[in-house]
Design a protein that fits this description.
The complex is a heterodimer of chains A (343) and B (191).
Chain A lengths: L11 H17 L14 E6 L5 H12 L3 E6 L11 H10 L4 E6 L4 H7 L6 E7 L5 H16 L10 E5 L6 H12 L3 E5 L15 E3 L2 H6 L7 E4 L15 H8 L3 H6 L5 E3 L12 H5 L5 H20 L6 H4 L16 H5 L2
Parallel strand pairs in A: 1-2, 1-3, 3-4, 5-6, 5-8, 6-7, 8-9
Helix pairs in contact in A: 1-5, 1-11, 2-11, 5-6, 5-11
Chain B lengths: L10 H4 L1 E5 H19 L5 E5 L3 H17 L5 E3 L31 E9 L3 H13 L4 E9 L11 E5 L6 E6 L1 H4 L3 E6 L3
Parallel strand pairs in B: 2-3, 2-4, 4-5, 5-6
Antiparallel strand pairs in B: 1-8, 7-8
Classes of the chains: A alpha/beta (343), B alpha/beta (191).
Chain lengths: 343, 191
């Protein structure tokens, strides 16, 4: 693994490996001394062009627990607000010797551009790009699901039924999640109002529905997990649904719908939540909710990703010097920077 | 450390057997007695194997100790991958599991168990890993084979067999639980 740009780049085995390594990392996080010397002397840059609390803190904690040096960069208060381009920012970071660059960017495809452009020789980790992908979130969701519903390391999520509810159109979590869960063998059903399902959702490896109650009862009478997505008000520049109240009635997870779920089913949300809109306080705080646990699992999963990207001979300094060219990550075509972001 | 294929046929070509099943068994029994003698009984002993084959050896040693002394001996495993100093020189390896006995290791006598002692770097990593999980009263080292060529000031307290080797040779330890057979072989590097 050279970069982590999309869950589409992960096959079943490499995804399971990440989850297994994350499992070991999480064991080390139960200890009194949580810091490991593994990435001593490596520099990880958190390059955040978009607001984020938990993802940035989570990556920062993960890098620090592995003893890497962390440089935080946020667009606000930096030269980006003076008009510096992604390229010049990347060249600056390269000059500082970044071994890994964790990117969050409002434009879909920005991490991919960074990875294949040759502007930086560091590994690129996509921490959310526009409405495209958020692979570490999908991995931590899969990790949480496996812990609760499967339990065994080395296994995938074969046969699990997951219902993903909400603003799929703007959700990079949904895009990454559907791909990864499908790779790991789970069945995914997307539930959303027709206006919040993207064009071409029919080609995704999942089922879709407009009716949450029907989806929760399940065609096969069994739902293992409900993943709620945040209604992204900041991206709502059109009327996608008549009113918040109506959305909440039809697609919100409330006490009644919670009662419809089988005993062992878990309730997930990537955060931040709009309490009272897509999820009621009862559902968010109920014992089967894994929302807080997802945050701590996020650190373990990101430790695993950083470890797998940064350890090993491929990224060792000696072979960095003579090969300044491009190392293209597997299987994706270049995306125009503006194509996804303008959606 | 792979399973040797048909030892008779390519004896001279690929190397030779240095320890057989019965010799491995006797070595472990002797080490078990040495441990008890040195420690004056099994009190406070904790065995920690270094994955993969060290864990198997630790389990076998614990069995022997129980047979000799009675009473269960706490046994666990200690993964050292995340503490290695050669992570950048090797292909990425997935870390193994660390299982500590429920009693913990604080103020115990921890015996690290590994199959082959070579450069000493694994043991250095193990000592670092150990200090992250607790503070033992003493740490000892038991290995099945000591093949020399130390790069660090580290020595084993209990050795199954001292095996003088050249740097170009490779020592393969196979254990029944992992590889299906008990065997230690030495192989010359093929030109």
């Amino acid at each position: 693994m050279r970069h982590l740009l999309s869950t589409a780049d992960l096959d079943r085995d490499s995804a399971v490996t990440i989850l297994d390594v994350a499992e070991q990392m999480s064991v080390t996080q139960q200890r009194e001394i949580k810091k490991l010397p593994t990435l001593r002397g490596r520099t990880v840059v958190n390059l955040f062009f978009e607001d984020s609390t938990r993802t940035r803190i989570s990556f920062e904690a993960a890098a620090k627990r592995l003893s890497a040096d962390v440089i935080n960069f946020s667009a606000r208060g930096s030269s980006v607000s003076k008009g510096e381009s992604l390229k010049d920012t990347a060249l600056t970071l390269e000059a500082m010797g970044a071994d890994a660059v964790v990117v969050r960017h409002p434009a879909s495809g920005a991490p991919h551009r960074l990875a294949v452009s040759g502007w930086t020789r560091g590994c690129v980790v996509n921490a959310g790009d526009g409405t495209h992908e958020h692979p570490t979130q999908a991995l931590l969701d899969a990790f949480t699901l496996r812990r609760h519903l499967v339990g065994e390391p080395g296994t995938d999520l074969a046969g699990l039924r997951v219902v993903l509810v909400g603003d799929v159109l703007h959700s990079r979590v949904a895009r990454s999640g559907v791909r990864l869960l499908n790779t790991l063998g789970a069945h995914v059903t997307l539930v959303a109002p027709p206006t919040l399902l993207p064009v071409g959702v029919g080609t995704w490896p999942c089922a879709t529905s407009y009716d949450l109650d029907a989806a929760l009862q399940g065609e096969h009478g069994r739902v293992d997990a409900v993943m709620m997505l945040r209604v992204q008000r900041e991206r709502m520049n059109a009327a996608y649904f008549p009113s918040a109240r109506e959305y909440s009635r039809r697609y919100g997870l409330d006490a009644r719908r919670l009662g419809m779920l089988p005993e062992r089913a878990v309730v997930m949300h990537p955060g931040p939540m709009n309490r009272g809109l897509e999820i009621s306080a009862q559902a968010a705080d109920c014992p089967r909710s894994t929302i807080v646990e997802q945050v701590s699992n996020g650190v373990s999963v990101r430790m695993a990703v950083l470890y797998l990207l940064l350890s090993g001979e491929r990224s060792a300094p000696p072979d960095r010097a003579p090969t300044p060219g491009l190392t293209v990550s597997a299987g994706r075509t270049a995306r125009d920077l503006t194509a996804g972001g303008a959606r | 450390m792979t399973t040797p294929d048909s030892p008779r046929e390519d004896e001279d070509l690929a190397g030779h057997t240095v320890l057989e099943s019965s010799e491995i068994r006797r070595s472990l029994t002797r080490i078990a007695h040495e441990l008890l003698e040195r420690n004056k009984g099994s009190q406070d002993l904790v065995l920690l194997g270094i994955p993969t084959r060290g864990v198997t050896l630790a389990d076998r040693l614990a069995e022997r100790l129980t047979e000799i002394e009675g009473g269960p001996i706490p046994v666990g495993s200690l993964d050292v991958t995340l503490h290695r100093d050669d992570l950048r020189r090797q292909p990425t390896r997935a870390p193994g599991a660390t299982h500590l006995p429920p009693e913990g290791i604080d103020d115990k006598v921890v015996v690290l168990v590994d199959d082959v002692l070579f450069s000493g770097r694994t043991i250095r990593a193990a000592l670092d890993a150990l200090s992250d999980v607790g503070r033992p009263r003493a740490v000892r080292l038991a290995v099945l084979v000591d093949r020399g060529h130390r790069e660090l000031p580290i020595r084993a307290d209990h050795v199954g067999k001292n095996l003088p080797t050249s740097l170009t040779e490779r020592v393969h330890v196979s254990l029944r639980e992992v590889d299906g057979t008990d065997l230690v072989r030495i192989e010359r590097a093929r030109a």
